[in-house]
Amino acid sequence: MIRSEIKEAIAIVTIDHPERRNALGSQLMRDLGGALSSAEQNGAVRVVVLTGVPPAFCAGSDLKELAGLSIPDMCKHKSEPAAFARAIGYRTKPVIAAVEGHALGGGFILAASCDIVVSSSTAGWHLPEAPNGWLPPWGLASLVARTGPVRARRLTWGPRRSMALKRLVSDSWLTWLIPAGRPSTRSAWRPVLPLSHEKPSCPPNASLSRSLWPMLSAG
């Protein structure tokens, strides 16, 4: 379900479970965490790209898996992607979300938790929770960190249809918007490729501090 490869000091981590729209099941989350940890420990890797096999970057929680759980087990299930998303901010190497297809619910938040977000011009971004009567169970801090509290509320209370990509760019949600069919290719990473060359001169603790500083400055 998770594939990893290294190209030009870039670890490409791919969620490969298209029959479930790359939904965040328990085993998938464990494998994904292992893949990012391996990339972080690999001295040849300077940058990590997280992507998904079409038709979706990630459709959020695995609802089929959730349907068979008790309430306590459901809470535990939700805690796994939450812990993974928080851990991205503590990693010593930048993580780039390369999004093609749908990024729904937890998939939206997963991308938000990455340092940089690159999206295909045809990607579908949507947070369906609030229009359906509930709140996202995790990851709202990532929205606030990326866009600020007012825009984060607007995204959370968003429309039933996919959000306009131009609005997401203007709201500082997306870092780059590129033509369809290219977010998981080298052309998508060109603006951030300098990171793969600059990182050796940047001590790991300095990279970590860039993630911790917003939390520390917030008190």
Distance between the termini: 39 Å
Mean pLDDT: 79
Shape: globular
Named CATH architecture? Alpha-Beta Complex
Largest sheet: 6 strands, mixed
- What pattern of helices and strands is seen along the backbone? EEHEEHHEEHEEHHHEHHH
Radius of gyration: 16 Å
Characterise this structure.
The structure is a single chain. The protein has 219 residues and is α/β, with parallel strands linked by helices. It has one domain (2-214): 2-enoyl-CoA Hydratase, Chain A, domain 1 (Alpha-Beta Complex), CATH 3.90.226.10. The chain has helices spanning 26-41, 63-67, 71-88, 106-112, 140-147, 149-156, 165-170, 186-189, 193-198, 204-217; strands spanning 2-7, 10-15, 47-52, 56-58, 95-99, 102-104, 116-120, 124-126, 176-178. A six-stranded mixed sheet has the order 1-2-3-5-7-9. A hairpin with a 2-residue loop joins strand 1 and strand 2 (10-15). Helix 1 (26-41) runs parallel beside helix 3 (71-88) and helix 5 packs across helix 6. The longest helix is centred in the middle third of the chain and has 18 residues, at 71-88. It is globular.
